[in-house]
TrEMBL record:
Keywords: NADP. It holds the Pfam family NmrA. Residues 8-240 form the NmrA-like domain. This is SDR family oxidoreductase. Belongs to the NmrA-type oxidoreductase family. It comes from Streptomyces lateritius. Transmembrane segments: none annotated.
């Protein structure tokens, strides 16, 4: 029903890559989009069709202004891993969503979440948000993605892939992983916003097939038309490189996922769900080699920018 009737959607996180993909898809399909940002007007990313509310998730009044008059919401939390701060964000969102009388809120956890408690802030803070939203009574659908292909189309992966045939990533080579793109994520969120009878459901999105590191490299090789080998990065090396871009605290939060995966205690956490989410949400992520073929890899050929990660 909602796919035919224009929605008014509050997109939390629309100034980032994942939320931006959701916002653009919604706008392309003629739904109204509003997002919250702390960036000054001249520093905001281009989001045609979206309107901006200046403010911060930590301010309840700002969040209420974001949600006022909205019918739906897509929520992705920022890269913040302090439990109490994240809990405050989640409570502000829940209260604003209830006050607005939302038809549905879709929460993207940004990662799969283990069944039991862990010491990993990247998992536990996202679990906090899910629990706060669910306990609030807001009509909720949760999507839990695995790992994004777009992470590999980057200054620290692209040159090595194109020039050396090396695909470096901080997952063990034998870890089965259901890779997906930001575009596939946006389609899944859209389906979760508009599908009938999905309230209360949680979906481990990501497609029907898992790939090991070697299989991922083979798919990249088909897409690039060259031999590609997989290089598993040590999570501490990945974290040090990421710290150059995001700062040490954020890098530690993000890298916690990969430190956890390196222990081997939860090897299927990022694996495919055998098509359950694809069937219910009627979304099937594109095969990896097809995604690779569509990317303009030539922009990285001969790139002089030094990668923060070792490539060989």
């Amino acid at each position: 029903m909602s796919s035919q009737i224009p929605m008014r959607v509050a997109v939390v996180g629309a100034t980032g890559f994942q939320g931006g993909a959701v916002a653009r898809l919604l706008a392309e399909r003629h739904h109204r989009v509003r997002t919250l940002t702390r960036r000054p007007e001249g520093d905001r990313p281009p989001l045609p069709g979206a309107s901006f509310v200046a403010g911060d998730l930590g301010n309840a009044g700002d969040v209420r202004r974001l949600f006022e008059g909205m019918t739906h919401a897509s929520v992705l939390m920022p890269l913040v891993y302090e439990p109490e701060r994240v809990r405050r964000y989640a409570r502000n969102i829940a209260h604003a969503a209830l006050d607005a009388g939302l038809v549905r809120l879709v929460y993207n956890t940004n990662t799969r979440i283990p069944h039991g408690p862990t010491s990993v802030a990247a998992f536990e803070t996202r679990r906090i948000v899910e629990e706060v939203l669910r306990d609030s009574g807001v009509p909720l659908v949760v999507v839990r993605p695995p790992v994004y292909l777009d992470n590999l189309f980057s200054p620290w992966n692209g040159p090595a892939l194109v020039d050396e045939g090396v695909l470096a990533y901080p997952l063990p080579e034998d870890t089965p992983t259901a890779w997906m793109s930001h575009k596939d994520l946006a389609e899944a969120v859209y389906a979760a916003l508009t599908g009938e009878g999905l309230e209360g459901r949680t979906f481990d999105i990501g497609g029907e097939r898992s790939l090991t590191g070697a299989e991922l490299a083979e798919a990249f090789g088909r897409g690039l038309g060259r031999t590609v080998r997989y290089l598993p990065l040590r999570p501490d090396v990945f974290e040090r490189g990421l710290a150059q871009l995001l700062g040490p605290e954020t890098a530690a939060g993000v890298a916690g996922i990969y430190h956890h995966m390196a222990t081997g205690t939860d090897p299927l956490l990022m694996a495919a769900d055998d098509g359950v989410s694809a069937e219910v949400l009627t979304v099937r992520p594109a095969p990896v080699d097809e995604w690779v073929t569509r990317q303009p890899w030539q922009v990285w050929s001969g790139d002089s920018e030094e990668s923060p990660f070792p490539q060989g």
